[in-house]
Amino acid sequence: MGATIETHCPYCSLQCGVRMRVEPSRAPVIEPTEFPTNRGGLCAKGWSAPELLDHPDRLTTPLVRDDRSGPLRPASWDEALDRVVAAIRRAQREYGAAAVGCFGGGGLTNEKAYQLGKFARVALRTPHIDYNGRFCMSSAATAANRAFGIDRGLPFPLADIAEADVVLLVGSNPADTLPPAMQYFDAGRARGAAHIVVDPRRTATARGGTVHLQPTPGTDLALANGLLHIAIREGYVDKTYVDGRTSGFDTVGAAVAAWWPDRVERVTGVGEAQLRRTVQLLGTATSAMILTARGAEQHSNGTDTAQAYINLALALGLPGRPHSGYGTITGQGNGQGGREHGQKADQLPGYRRIDDTAARAHVAAVWGVDPADLPGPGVSAVEMLDRLGTPGGVRALLVLASNIAVSAPDRDRVVARLSALDFLAVSDMFLSDTAALADVVLPTAQWAEEDGTMTNLEGRVIRRRRALAPPDGVLDDLALLAALAERLEAPGRFSADPRTVFDELRRASAGGIADYAGISYERIEAERGVFWPCPAADHPGTPRLFTDRFATADGRARFVRVDHHEPAESPDQEYPYVLTTGRIMQQYQSGNQTRRSRSLRLTADDPRAEIHPDLARRLGIGAADLVELRTRRGTAVFRAHLTDTIRPDTVFVPFHWGGPASANALTDPTLDRHSKMPAFKCCAVAMRRIGGP
Ligand code: SF4
């Protein structure tokens, strides 16, 4: 007897709806549904997702290592859990509670992200918890909080994109990263909308746009200040909106006064005519959106860069206007929900600050503990990784849903720090590069084997539904945390049941910024997702934010003065080119899942460096030659892809691979001072040919 279950793709923030057919003795198959985000669309990754479920690499038994230099061997769950608990107790005894850390992921369901945050604070009493979302949209989140008092990736439904007359997309390539979402952009263009794409590469998205601005990586902030300068000088500022709904404009206006177009061109490489056209399109549109993504945000000035585009949006009076506003396009499947429920070093559930007395009292009451027992803020992901195994740093680390050894910047240093730990435990479905370094590996369930909720890029809370049982020997992360909490004799209750955990999450979030109190599994089913904030069962949810006020104390949005600074690392004689990194359509994040997919490997099993033909000619590099890239952190080898779609001074590499083609062996770990986002998108690199095709 078969069954058909509606759930969602395991990968990116679009969370496309899929229908899964499960029959005895047959591999499960999926097809897209008409869910309001994907409306029948699905990308190659989504179509291939069932291949993961019975993949021969699947971990189905815990693995343990008897000594650091020895091999991993199969073990029972009792032995594995006992080892984790013994290592935690040893680290706590020898170094104190803060010597134990947790590292989570933006792919965890809301229930798991919530439970991991609670586990760290209540069962471990450690401040040391952070997650890989710090590498994702933390800069835009910080900027949005400063300006609007709230951080929701898109403050409007995705479908509004189709209705906007002008869209400015900065550092975003949805044609490759969110292919089904292109239907909204395509519909807009079919209506005559103008799309302006800012990207150092002429991506598939840029090729379909009306205007393509191709700045030097690391200069997006100067570009935004230059656009605002023109908007002010040419009278496009919406004075009524600025006076009535914002504060701080005069300071920002003064700060951009020096950004004349010729200066902007010198810094960014974008000419005056394109700057003026962009402002004219934005300034005369009835509805317009400014959307940023990682290309603008993953820099040592990423927060200020996102802020500069928010300043521009506010000056033009966009946020809160119909089919208009500022948003960031999140990346990971639960990148939005993953940062709302306490997985971040400085936050408690409901997007509450952990150093806020009232927030601590509220959450502690839900957890059944004394607020005085809750630890304070910890440190950000890279800061925690930097101190692994050092005096005062974390000595025992539990990693869930994250492949740090591939996804963190300056890979060699990260691997050295992971290897310096007294103890590393990793929960994963496959033996990732990070799990391969662990003392204990804990096999976990995956997308179609679990129940829970995810929050997509629009702030829409959706249901992930269980379609089949996990293989024998696999333990869902909620059950793992419950078993560990029990062995640690933790106070409070750690349920392994997703619905019970979600109901607790609702209570913990009530009254917070990300308020889920009125969202239930039943409502999500009935309404095909509910938008937060939703403070009560009879509240309709909030698809559109800022229509009449912002979430600040006075209801006004804040302009924030931001100034351009050179990137942390610029080209010089030794490293003469700019390196930038990003995604390709067929792969996802560290590739731990998608690199195992046979169908995806058929089309993308060959990490390639995009190099302009002029630069290649100067360096004697031919098509498909092997090239070595070298930065101050390390080296990596890629096959050359010669293309005039990239700037001649810039090299692009995808970040989905470890091993010799590891982009993050090259990247710069310098942090944005506000968000602690590493500078993934820009560093200085040298390059040479090392072999033929
Ligand atoms: Fe949709 Fe993203 Fe999955 Fe592709 S990877 S099918 S765009 S959710």
From TrEMBL:
| Pfam families from the UniProt entry | Molybdop_Fe4S4 (PF04879), Molybdopterin (PF00384), Molydop_binding (PF01568)
Q: Which UniProt key words apply to this protein?
A: 4Fe-4S, Iron, Iron-sulfur, Metal-binding
Q: Iron-sulfur among the record's keywords?
A: yes
Domain of life assignment: Bacteria
InterPro entries in UniProt: Asp_de-COase-like_dom_sf, MoPterin_dinucl-bd_dom, Mopterin_OxRdtase, Mopterin_OxRdtase_4Fe-4S_dom, Prok_molybdopt-oxidoreductase
Q: Which SMART domains match?
A: Molybdop_Fe4S4
- Which PROSITE patterns is this protein grouped with? 4FE4S_MOW_BIS_MGD
Where does the 4Fe-4S Mo/W bis-MGD-type domain lie? 2-57
| UniProt keyword annotation of 4Fe-4S present | yes
State the protein's name: Molybdopterin oxidoreductase
Q: Which taxonomic lineage is given here?
A: Bacteria, Bacillati, Actinomycetota, Actinomycetes, Micromonosporales
This protein's encoding gene: nasA_2
